[in-house]
Inverse folding.
């Protein structure tokens, strides 16, 4: 979007909608379509209309350190003629909107930005990654019953906070999230990932962690589209039938379908032809990759080993989402499952908005998107709308916008030193204080004991 168009949007539509135009070219018509498609559009004029509540949900992630009432005030979301708004009206407006419009907007932006100018292509294939993570939610009775808790020293459900589990599909080149599935903590990542396979594009390569080594997963991914391939790090106990050794040292092999799986899922193919690539980093342990890219001339083994580590881009996305955007908060802020769902979709949508704006910087400098700092970009965007857009005269906005866009160029990180290898370590700060396990409502005689999934 041209600078003049951004300026006009910021001046004509106000700070909140100008933020969306600036930060991600979020089309105003998309919001109207989202409200109409999800049945949340209303004829009644409210002090805090539904289309402005969308900006509230985004602002909750942009300003994670502020209350939702402060976000409404900061973004000037109420109608101009409204003199006052009761604080209790804000959460009511959130839950009246629901999560469906935010989810609809997320996938609309994915559809519009998914190509991203061909970013992420590798030898004619678009490059994607799938991985899972967890997010803590408020320790309320409703959240506990809806998503459950991990186990702890005291047994099951002993963790400090309830946690939801999620699986995401990501464009590894543009680092845009393309699809997401989440549910209770007890639901496995492999189960959640099944909801993502239909959204994997054709003519693609999807990189998986070894936690997704599963025959049904492999079959679901490659059979739900055309020319879909995957690459995964093998487990040590994965059985296979060796077909032949290829000139580059890789092995053409068939991992067989188990008899039990054949009885329960007879439609699955009896075997999946692929290649096994063995490698070992200096001072590391021997590892193996399994991929359906069987052409050793077009896809050399050494290139596949180097490419596999692009999978870490999705780990960095989780870090940006939870550490930088949500500022390492103990948990999400919503105390009801419906609010948690809305908050998660809002965070994912804002993440993509920030990434979309960042894509313009490497394009101007002939650099890959991974060279741009997400944290610095997010802070500059936040500071712009805290200082420039809302605390300066309209005539000075164009100058601030020019300075902002030029400033993004200094957010370029130095090249990564890929030769560095460090062993994994986990550090946990223990406490001598007694664990607060939260308070649960006493259960009636009619209610079953234990956690309700």
């Amino acid at each position: 979007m041209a600078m003049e168009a951004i300026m006009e949007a910021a001046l004509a539509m106000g700070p909140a909608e100008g933020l969306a135009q600036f930060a991600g070219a979020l089309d105003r018509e998309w919001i109207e379509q989202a409200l109409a498609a999800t049945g949340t559009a209303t004829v009644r004029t409210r002090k805090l209309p539904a289309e402005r509540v969308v900006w509230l949900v985004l602002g909750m992630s942009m300003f994670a350190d502020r209350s939702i009432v402060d976000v409404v005030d900061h973004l000037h979301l109420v109608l101009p003629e409204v003199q006052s708004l009761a604080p209790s009206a804000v959460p009511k407006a959130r839950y009246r909107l629901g999560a469906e419009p935010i989810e609809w907007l997320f996938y609309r932006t994915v559809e519009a930005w998914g190509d991203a100018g061909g970013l992420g292509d590798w030898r004619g294939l678009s490059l994607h990654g799938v991985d899972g993570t967890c997010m803590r939610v408020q320790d309320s009775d409703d959240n506990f019953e809806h998503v459950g808790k991990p186990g702890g020293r005291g047994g099951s459900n002993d963790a400090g906070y309830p946690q939801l589990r999620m699986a995401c599909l990501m464009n590894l080149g543009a680092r845009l999230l393309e699809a997401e599935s989440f549910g209770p903590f007890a639901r496995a990542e492999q189960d959640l990932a099944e909801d993502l396979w239909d959204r994997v594009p054709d003519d693609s390569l999807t990189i998986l962690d070894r936690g997704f080594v599963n025959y049904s997963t492999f079959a679901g991914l490659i059979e739900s589209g055309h020319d879909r391939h995957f690459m995964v790090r093998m487990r040590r106990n994965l059985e296979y039938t060796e077909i032949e050794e290829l000139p580059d040292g890789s092995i053409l092999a068939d991992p067989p379908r188990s008899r039990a799986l054949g009885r329960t899922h007879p439609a699955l193919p009896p075997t999946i032809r692929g290649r096994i690539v063995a490698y070992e980093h200096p001072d590391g342990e021997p590892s193996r990759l399994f991929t359906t890219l069987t052409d050793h001339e077009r896809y050399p083994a050494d290139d596949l080993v180097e490419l596999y580590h692009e999978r870490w881009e999705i780990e960095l996305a989780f870090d940006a989402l939870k550490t930088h955007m949500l500022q390492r908060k103990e948990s999400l802020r919503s105390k009801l499952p419906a609010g948690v769902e809305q908050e998660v979709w809002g965070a994912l949508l804002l993440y993509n908005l920030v990434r979309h704006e960042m894509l313009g910087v490497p394009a101007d400098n002939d650099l890959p998107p991974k060279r741009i700092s997400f944290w610095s970009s997010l802070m500059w965007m936040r500071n712009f709308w805290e200082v420039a857009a809302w605390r300066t005269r309209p005539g000075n906005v164009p100058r601030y916008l020019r300075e902002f866009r030029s400033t993004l160029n200094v957010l370029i990180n130095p090249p990564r030193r890929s030769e560095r290898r460090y062993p994994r370590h986990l550090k946990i700060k223990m406490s001598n204080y007694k664990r607060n396990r939260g308070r649960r409502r006493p259960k009636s005689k009619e209610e079953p004991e234990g956690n309700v999934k």
Remarks:
- The radius of gyration is 24 Å.
